[in-house]
Amino acid sequence: MGSVGAKEVPVLLSPEGLRIDGRRLDELRPIKIEAGPLHQADGSAFVEWGANKVMAAVYGPREVHPRHLQQNNKAVIQCKYNMAAFSVDERKRPGLDRRSQEISKVIAEAFESVVFAEEFPRTSIDVYIEVLQANAGTRCAGLVAASVALADAGIPMVDLLPAVAVGKVAGRIALDLKKEEDNFGEADLPMALVPQSGRLVLLQMEGHMTPEELSQSLDLGVRGCRDIYEKMKAALRARYSAPSSGGAA
Amino acid sequence: MGSVGAKEVPVLLSPEGLRIDGRRLDELRPIKIEAGPLHQADGSAFVEWGANKVMAAVYGPREVHPRHLQQNNKAVIQCKYNMAAFSVDERKRPGLDRRSQEISKVIAEAFESVVFAEEFPRTSIDVYIEVLQANAGTRCAGLVAASVALADAGIPMVDLLPAVAVGKVAGRIALDLKKEEDNFGEADLPMALVPQSGRLVLLQMEGHMTPEELSQSLDLGVRGCRDIYEKMKAALRARYSAPSSGGAA
Amino acid sequence: MGSVGAKEVPVLLSPEGLRIDGRRLDELRPIKIEAGPLHQADGSAFVEWGANKVMAAVYGPREVHPRHLQQNNKAVIQCKYNMAAFSVDERKRPGLDRRSQEISKVIAEAFESVVFAEEFPRTSIDVYIEVLQANAGTRCAGLVAASVALADAGIPMVDLLPAVAVGKVAGRIALDLKKEEDNFGEADLPMALVPQSGRLVLLQMEGHMTPEELSQSLDLGVRGCRDIYEKMKAALRARYSAPSSGGAA
Amino acid sequence: MSEGVATEILTTHILDLAADGKRLDGRGPDEYRPVSVEPGFVVTADGSALARLGDTAVLAGIKLEPGKPFPDTPNAGVLTTNAELIPLSSPVFEPGPPQPGAIEVSRVVDRAIRAAETIDLTRLVVTPGEKTWVCYVDMHVLDHGGNLIDAASLAALTALTHATVPAKRFEVGESDYPLDVQHFPVECTYVRLGDTIVVDPTFDEEGAAQGRLTVATDETGRVVAMQKGLVGAFSPDDVKEVVRRSFAHGDRLRAIARGSPA
Amino acid sequence: MSEGVATEILTTHILDLAADGKRLDGRGPDEYRPVSVEPGFVVTADGSALARLGDTAVLAGIKLEPGKPFPDTPNAGVLTTNAELIPLSSPVFEPGPPQPGAIEVSRVVDRAIRAAETIDLTRLVVTPGEKTWVCYVDMHVLDHGGNLIDAASLAALTALTHATVPAKRFEVGESDYPLDVQHFPVECTYVRLGDTIVVDPTFDEEGAAQGRLTVATDETGRVVAMQKGLVGAFSPDDVKEVVRRSFAHGDRLRAIARGSPA
Amino acid sequence: MSEGVATEILTTHILDLAADGKRLDGRGPDEYRPVSVEPGFVVTADGSALARLGDTAVLAGIKLEPGKPFPDTPNAGVLTTNAELIPLSSPVFEPGPPQPGAIEVSRVVDRAIRAAETIDLTRLVVTPGEKTWVCYVDMHVLDHGGNLIDAASLAALTALTHATVPAKRFEVGESDYPLDVQHFPVECTYVRLGDTIVVDPTFDEEGAAQGRLTVATDETGRVVAMQKGLVGAFSPDDVKEVVRRSFAHGDRLRAIARGSPA
Fold it and tell me: Residues D250, D256, D258, CA angle at the centre, nearest 5°?
């Protein structure tokens, strides 16, 4: 988004309306979700989404660290979104930057909106998201992985939380941007949906859109979320039918 | 003070004995004190002193953070003096530097010398000083603002704490240096007075003075403090006569 | 060790088999150990070992900081190995670096292997090692100093912990390397011995050795440790026979 | 009565009122508190403004310094936005490293400034790849009466609008000149209280809220940034309605900020 | 039953088994868990590998960037090894600055890489004293089932073996080329359980251990690094025996890592 | 008996003695503990000294390195003063970032060094605006028996007096030469115990004190720095009296420091 002063903009949309990887405007990248790949975590998931590779793990309900965050009437949900140093082209220095902290906050708030936290007072539910290979849309991939990991950990929730970003590419609204589209696109709008209620628990936007474009983006994103929702459920069904596998990160 | 290797020294004292802003050697800069400008704090004050703008707020007595600082027989007084990044000509990096930490320490010790801390065991009285615009003498301006804020918060004290710096400019002892005088002066001696007892609870000095000059400086500073004391009382009287205003930072 | 791309290698071994400071391959540098030089610490020791100067202090058993490290069935042993900024040729920035943290960890584990920690549940035994002047072998010098300080503090232990490094210089196994030998040597192998059991509680190695050389190094190091053990006991005897001296750092 | 119980009673009260379209301070659901903006508050800054929304006060200061462009964008200046939620301004803030709340405020304001192309960063460059102006936007919350994002953004944008590039002081040019500001995005924040959505929430309303939604719009009719915050959810139709309303508030706040005497 | 009691019972059980030469998972004392290494796992890295020892999984990624040599070694490139024991991988890790455990893993792996002269650092230099390649080795523990050092080292060395110097991307040369790796040290870790010494300990075995000993050997028959860890002691004869055995394990693990398809 | 009660009894006892002009260790009110200074204690430093006041021991080390002058003072060298109150020296210090007490010690020593123009910073410059010597003064408290400021300052000044500029080692000049020290300020600290003011307080006297006052004087008869510390107050007449007495102590301590064999 808005790489001011950067290199030349590539052709993002063919005359036939196809994108640089051949997708239509409303088409998702390939998604593979594996529930339960980790052995130590109470719940885990690995998501390959386009060229993103994201691992999520859930621990809890367990004791709260640091102690003073403990709440008497419910569980606190703590989230750490982190990018591996080698997950991006330019090596990222280890440690939490401001972007990661903001993403951790909005993801935690999204899960707090659906987890039945009152069932576990005085505990913490800790959600860890590790981006191992990044290619645009990592917060949505992380949210999807974490949501499956929460289900894998048996945490009671209103619903799973599918998520996807909609963007604007060459003046057109497009689903699920990949890196080149995100770098040179005109807008980026990640969202997470509660399928049951049709409401959004995560929503951010950066770029420029008319109100009409924004309206269209919301509708396209909701449809995308519903497709991802099916893949999430399938991954959990596969996990339950083969409970003791584990292993393939 | 002692800007070794810096630019040329300006003329700090006219042949008539007047300073660069037309003041006499024993004359204060204009001071405006407003008690209670903030709405969230338990007590607050805003001080404009020459070209300084300083805000102070007091919270407490309240729970001690971090917990291990709690004292069983009295309140702890914690002070944070901080400069806004844009308060000085050269942008200051946000965060506490060593100068701010030293100033916070001597100001906290000054207030501990006059607050009846034994009345509030196991609590903290938190004093925050924010320098918004700086022009020499900010620790004294901050101390004056904090003292009025403590009174505004209803914290019982032996007395208010007026404060002022005395310096040496072109070989002469002068009251209340402004920035150019401080940069090119030969000494700086900030102090805070307990008017009731005539004793000093803050005293620092840097530069060079003979013992006689130092003696003269102490006497001049004490007189300056007594003038400022009147302005502090007036500000609190104005606050009590118009209790519900608030607002003008 | 392994100063890749550095300056020329000096002659480390004379044709007569003597080292740059005239020692034989199996000869220690001069060692002076003083027990109890500090007044505030519960136990202390100062070690001059070749051109190393190392001070160690022990506090405890005392309250555990931070609290969450407390163990219900034994004392925790915390160790901080630190180098003074001026202890090395190139000024060291104050603060713990990764090397210091690793050394602190292996030294703490060595002492945990010999201290009767179960006698002091819920307490901390804090071991501080300050390298004031460094010349290779500081972790061993620090360990020796800390071990005497622990005894000086009256902490019950299986045994004292003598320590020494063995290295490889000009292709030969040598005891107790000094700086030039360490910089241009081919291997460094520090170890700490429990004399009573003949077992090693600290052992590290870096460089390259054949298994035979390594075997020889272990045997040479164990002999060196036994010599140092005698000096440690002598220092403690001197302390007990002149209990109230203190003073000479 | 414990603090937790008091907060719960207050929350219930705020929600009950909201169900009838009412608010604690008597405002209508789509009404801002009194707004004022004072540019030039701090003369040591290269630009500054104190913005107030009711009891909320945020001071923004701009500093410009010569520096190096980032290696991957040699033709763009550098803009750094930072919000300090200092403990002076609220009993809930503690000293220490920036909290997630402060980071969110600075990132949401930063996002609107960038996305609206408020400043043409390429014009800050002195020598491509070598030397550029670095523009620091520091926001200092003085009084936290709720809705920090809108107040901070109003202060920051007004401060930028009145900022001067100190070219003479840093010997980069012969004289100082005004910073060129192309757009003026305005952030507008709503919270959900039960089925009612209200604008410009107070601190207590934020505590009772079931979701917060901020929309930044500029004077050309574009949405340039959005941020959903806090626990809670919005339907797509809620979002569309909030976007629609944000434009009118944006126009009014922008006029207040611009009308302020420099 | 408290966690402490459960751990104690488990420890006793592990020690009882070990006294009979047995292990919880049925392995023999000198037997590794199943080993696998997958190079090229992360395409954004200049080299990468995912190594598994049973339930333990460590991902290593290599990044090479132009930088400056250290002033005292103008003719040597820079190698930086870092292990992240992220809380995702184990209930015992907490977020925050690197813990002593993480520092130990990275330092022990680093020591083997350097001492074995795995990479000829002088060949990383572009202009002596001015410009060199900086080689970052980042190890990310994903699943902590015990014996991190061996898994991390296997991942790191395999990642190095498959790494490419991105000369073209950074405009240092005309085309990218493989990183020149001269040696392949392998770390081999034992723990003492009573009088028995067992290789490749699980997480629970590490908890029961009375000392840990790691020996790194290379393919030329040299010992290049050792590290004794945890509370506990080894006799010189124990050490000599562990060194002897490490060579065979080293050869096997090296073959597995090298046999993996790039 | 709790620690708090023991401290309180000790404080009362110290104050009772002081009312009769007596001290726990038998000294008179205006008497220092035995003073010794040992220069050259650390050979890796470019200058060093170990100073003792009774049970208090502080080691200062000087390091000089080439560096850059600050942009706003291109014709001045750089001096950096740092005190480490390491936990080895006292049960009251904890590991971690420098505490306010350590910062105060280093800032008060630094202030005296600068104000007395101890070193002509302009003579440290090699090339104006480009290259200068950076002089680090590091003070390491080894044994905290009270009155750290005086001991630290004595150690630092003696170390500076014996320091060598390592011009040859850094290839800045042909040979090393002594650092040019123009003045030798000495800090002299009193505490108030009731109506009595005593010099060179012990750790326990500092705990009982109702105010601490430090005055730095140099050999030319100038006061160059002051610092009031701790809770408590001094009348202007108290201050004048302390200043008067500081000169005599200053002369004596300076002579001891200078008389020490180099």
Answer: 95
